[in-house]
Amino acid sequence: MESKQISLAGVMAWPVSHSLSPRLHGYWLSQYGINGSYLPLSVPPSHFPRALKNLPNTLFVGVNVTLPYKETALAVVDVADDTARRMGAVNTVIVKADGTLFGTNTDGYGFLENMRDIILGWRADTGPAVVLGAGGASRGVCVALLDEGVPEIRLVNRTGMRARTLATELGRSITTVPWSDRESALEGARLLVNATSLGMTGKGELDIALDKLPVEAVVYDIVYTPTETQLLVAAKARGNAVVDGLGMLLHQASPGFQAWFGTKPDVNVELRNFMSENL
Ligand code: NAP
After folding, report:
1. How far is the CA of 1 from the centre of ligand 1 (A)?
2. What span, in angstroms and rounded, lies between the C-alpha atoms of 216 and 190?
3. What is the pLDDT of residue 172?
4. pLDDT tens, 96-148?
5. Architecture of domain 2-105
6. Which of 17, 184, 204, 205 measures 20 to 30 Å from 99, CA to CA?
7. Is 70 a catalytic residue?
8. What are the CA-CA distances from residue 82 to residues 2, 89, 256 (Å)?
9. One of 70, 203, 212, 264 is an active-site residue; which one?
10. 224: Cβ below 6 Å to ligand 1?
11. Which fold has domain 108-246?
């Protein structure tokens, strides 16, 4: 009898127990009847570079990499694409047929696909975007928006130096705004993105009045616990179109799954409901 080798993928993190990726990829594997498995891989910091480098000697076809390893992974992979290099981080690693490790970053892709899913006909070039936060997630959002032709990003962060560093690295279309001026930054904006951890369960609330934000602007909160944050409730109440962070999480996983298991997975309402049960 012919025995077909199982394909393995997984997520390397420390700790890994909080990761939603095994549930997500497990859903797709069973949905498409694929002979594969996606495993949580708890890798201590001293082992991470070796564990990643060793992947080609195993049955693993690749891994996701998450906190605290996204930046280290960029240095460990053999080849990183332009997106990963500009984001300064790798979240998806693919073992190529010749045994080399290829790293990419799909956060920006997930951000944009989710936006296009929810806001039909959305375009980045219609006006300025205000991005709150200058951490890892914000970097992904900014790269994605710049690639889509956003004319201006107003980057607002509590720690001004972090925003200025990002602006210097990513280019002239980014202006930095002090955290205390976040409300005036909303004037004339066509998009507001919360890429801070504020609004997330267990963190503080995001304190921002939306009065100066045009009603035509889209409000996108990348926080996904809860899926409906106070920011989105307030934005919806005044008539802004809103996008939540769960769809970004689902879409960013899709390119890895396709590369490892050969099927482009669907992001649909059944998947959203399945993942929401566990949030
Ligand atoms: P991070 O690198 O730790 O950055 C956190 C950001 O939040 C920083 O800009 C930080 O400002 C800001 N912040 C934290 N507490 C604050 C406060 N009290 N007041 C003002 N600003 C505050 O985290 P990250 O990886 O970028 O993640 C940010 C959020 O995005 C998290 O909630 C994460 O779950 C979410 N996320 C979602 C997805 C998705 O797929 N939907 C993907 C990635 C991340 P300072 O620089 O001043 O500290």
Report:
1. 52
2. 7
3. 83
4. 999 999 999 999 999 999 999 999 999 999 999 999 999 999 999 999 999 99
5. 3-Layer(aba) Sandwich (3.40)
6. 17
7. yes
8. 40, 11, 17
9. 70
10. yes
11. Rossmann fold (3.40.50)
